[in-house]
Amino acid sequence: MADTGQVATAASSKDPAVGLTAVRSLRVLVERLEALQVQNARDQGWTWEQIAQLLGVTRQAVHKKYASGRGPLRRKD
Amino acid sequence: MFERFTQQARQIVEGAQGQARQLHSGRVGTEHLLLSLVAQAGSASADVLAAHGLTHDSVAESVRAYVGAGDLDADALTTLGIDLDAVRDRVEATFGPGALDGGPAGRNTGMIGHIPFTPRAKKVLELSLREAVALKSRTIADGHIALGLLREGEGLAMKVLADRGVDLEAVRRELRTALQA
User: What's the rounded Cα separation, in Å, for the pair B48 and B11?
Assistant: First the structure.
């Protein structure tokens, strides 16, 4: 990892390209972690209700996102 | 079909998986097949490709220019104080190799470490069989895979070749000559 000074400089950068790229990467990271965790919870017998509660979303939302198709790890590409 | 692959051709296919893994790609695409072909130093097809300026370094550079850092940009995350490598290590420790990069989560699939091929990359392998048949070869060698890549004609590998101004007809001809040697 880059040294702290470098990180601080980049984080305070006003360049939208830097900030937006970081946000996009963070969103992708969150999506992938969520998919793994939801799959893991389902494997361990958790209900959609329980998963939704901890994710702070409705049961319908999490079910719609992950219950169809061939599992949460399906990729759109 | 795979039983007709020569030892070297098998190494190309397996090598493509390794190339995809190295680039943290969840799929094996035509670009990984190309990278694997040029990485097999001493193979007939690698020699032909190298003569046209296609070395592992040059191809990797072009591939990177297209793929960039992908959706998950480690440098961008560093600006937020997030170390993607550290996150990846922890996720893989729990969910298995490649878990964060869209690979199989491991435990369910029973295929740890296997990265699926894109439809285009599969097509290349099918076409390598056709190239072998056309050249009346009983086996499929690395050169046939290279010809399959050219025959498929699309995909990232071909973009790389086009960008580097490679004379596709000449490569095709030289690959055929090398195969018949």
Answer: 18
- Determine the residue type at B104: P
Number of domain units in chain B: 1
The structure tokens 């199989």 sit at B104
Does B89 reside within a domain? Answer: no
Asked if residue A52 belongs to a domain, the reply is yes
Instruction: Name the interface residues of B facing A (CB cutoff 8 Å).
Output: 26-27, 69, 71-74, 76-87, 91, 95, 99-100, 102, 104-105, 107-108, 118
How far is it, in rounded angstroms, from Cα B93 to Cα A36? 13
What type of residue sits at position B131? E
Q: Is residue B86 part of a domain?
A: no
Distance CA B50, CA B52 (A): 5
Nearest CA in chain B to A42: B108
State the complex-level ipTM: 0.71
Nearest CB to B77 within list A26, A43, A75: A26
Please give the residue of chain A at the shortest CA–CA distance from B99.
A36
CATH number at residue B49: 1.10.1780.10
Vertex A42, ends A38 and A45: CA angle to 5°? 145
User: What are the pLDDT digits (tens) for B155-176?
Assistant: 899 999 998 899 999 999 999 9
Q: What is the DSSP string of B9-44?
A: HHHHHHHHHHHHHHTT-SSB-HHHHHHHHHHSTTSH
